[in-house]
Amino acid sequence: MLDRLLDWLLVCTLRDWFDLPEARPPAWYRALTDEAVGPALRAMHAAPARPWTTAELAAEAGVSRTTFAKRFRELMGEAPAAYLTEWRMDLAADLLADPQVTVAAVARRVGYADPFGFSAAFKRVRGVSPSSYRAALAGAPDERRETPVG
After folding, report:
1. How far apart are CA 131 and CA 129, in angstroms?
2. pLDDT for 10-41, tens place per residue?
3. Which ranges carry the HTH araC/xylS-type domain (predicted)?
4. I want to staple 43 with a disulfide (CB 3.0 to 4.6 A). Which of 38, 60, 72, 137 is the partner?
């Protein structure tokens, strides 16, 4: 209950701050409120594992493929496919923090049927393989424990 209340408070605070005349809201916030991009962005966030095409995303927004791709790039600074890949890799990084979830399961949950394809994409975006990323996360608490206090 308290978590939801804090989430709500954060959302309200951010909305108020973004609405200030001197504020420069981040690209994702502007895009979420855009009629041509917002519906597609919400669809990507709701179903990241779906094999989205630019045409399908444009249909979600109710605009032509060309209009959607142009407007998306104007607002987000990258193509829809590039954004979707980044979003999937962000989700994957969070999932990799759980050692009980296999790399293959992470791959499936973010839209990759092939764990090798997922590993290549993750390494391209994050600079390390999923296994190395997970190992670094697992090693971080141990390193903190060994650091002398004082």
Report:
1. 5
2. 666 766 656 666 667 777 777 888 899 999 99
3. 38-136
4. 60
The two three-digit tokens of residue 101, written as one number = 């979830």
Report the distance separating Cα 20 and Cα 29, nearest Å.
Answer: 14
The length of the chain, given as a count of residues: 150
What is d(CA 34, CA 46) in angstroms, rounded to the nearest whole number? 17
Q: How far is CA 116 from CA 53, 126, 146, 149, in A?
A: 21, 15, 35, 42
Alpha carbon distance 147, 19 (integer Å): 44
Instruction: Go through 78-115 and write b for each residue having 16 or more CB atoms within 10 A of its CB, e for each that does not.
Output: eebeebbbebbbebbbebbeeeeeebbebbebbbbeeb
Backbone angles phi, psi at 69, to 5 degrees: -60, -40
